Amino acid sequence: MARQSVAASVLAAMLLVVGVFASIPTGVRSIGVCYGVHGDRLPSPAEVVQLYRSNGITGMRLYEPDVNTLLALNGSGIGVIMDVADENVPRLASSPSVAADWVKLNIQRYYPGVAFRYIAVGNEITGSATQNIVPAMKNLNAALSSAGLSGAIKVSTAVRMDVLAASSPPSAGTFRDAYMTQVARLLDSTGAPLLANVYPYFAYTGAPQGAIDVNYALFQPSSTIVHDNGHDYTNLFDAMVDALYVALAKVNILSTVQVVISETGWPSAGSASATVANARTYNQNLVDHVRGGTPRRPGKAIEAYLFAMFNENLKTGAESERHFGLFNPDKSPVYPIKF
Ligand SMILES: *[C@@H]1O[C@H](CO)[C@@H](O)[C@H](O)[C@H]1NC(C)=O
To answer: Ligand 1 atom 7: the closest Cα is on which residue?
Structure first.
């Protein structure tokens, strides 16, 4: 009993020390921006990379390999999430040599001048195509390993929140489908993070009117506090991220998989809650919030990528889809934000 409590307090002290170190701001390494290109009159890749640098944005997500962007990134120090386009995932899943060629062409050719962090095997893949995710990840892992890059660059896949069958309260977090169990186990074995697109905006707008306080979704003071197994949630983002951590722990109680936020954001036009003021509030609060971690991972800075760099007028779907940008195509900011 006594020994246990000594051990517990030593552990608590260690966690405290770890927490203190982890909460020292690690610069802006944890904030990136997604570079979507579905707009006309967008600046050249060289100008885009310059715009990232002049704003102190230190991470970029690219939805598919693009030669000019990768050449512009050479030597920039910007950390990169490189997606495998969804339509290429089946080929990478079925052939180790196709995966090896993909790595040669899109990674090795630019490494180490381009600071690749993760390869995302598809973005929000759904339906029967999900069966290709794990085989493609394994083929890419083998290709990176042969190239001597498996320590530096980690392979994952970018999921949306509905991979969870339940997410509220966070302790209810559970993966919906068996393939996610395989993904989670693979991530644990390689040390790669789970990439998750986490949008309080869609949770808020998808809920019945009045069900969620908009201030809770915007990291603003709110009367909503979710009490969940000793953790208090004062914003929806933390609750969503921790639901993913709970689901990972249900697959493996000792899971050390990190959740990296591969997209998050709030549109500035196109719906009742999509205003410039709300978009600015969400994105600035997000930037300021992520260093502190979540209630289940306090003090552990969250790596997050805002969606997106530009308003993309060629995107289809709801009007708001064309208004997620931080910048206009002429490089002027849609609203001021500090990274
Ligand atoms: C990246 O820059 C370095 C240093 O200038 C250069 O040696 C290398 O060839 C460049 N890589 C590519 C792919 O252009």
So the answer is: 113
H helix runs in the chain, sequence order: 2-23, 45-54, 67-73, 89-94, 96-103, 133-146, 178-190, 200-206, 214-217, 236-251, 276-289
The per-residue pLDDT for range 99-126, each reduced to its tens digit, is 999 999 999 999 999 999 999 999 999 9
* Ligand 1 atom closest to 70 (CA): 13
Q: Residue 78 is which amino acid?
A: I
Q: Considering the candidates 64, 263, 303, 312, report the single residue annotated as catalytic.
A: 263
Instruction: Encode pLDDT of 9-25 as tens digits.
Output: 444 444 444 434 433 34
Q: What is the DSSP letter of 301?
A: P
Q: Tokens 């001021």, residue?
A: 336
| Structural domains of the chain sorted by starting position, each given as residue range(s) with its CATH number in brackets | 6-322 (3.20.20.80)
124 a catalytic residue: yes
> Quick one: pLDDT at residue 20?
40
What is the distance in A from the centroid of ligand 1 to the CA of 224?
52
Closest C-alpha to 62, from 126, 114, 127, 5? 114
Asked if residue 74 has its Cβ within 6 Å of ligand 1, the reply is yes
Looking up tokens 């949306």 gives: 160
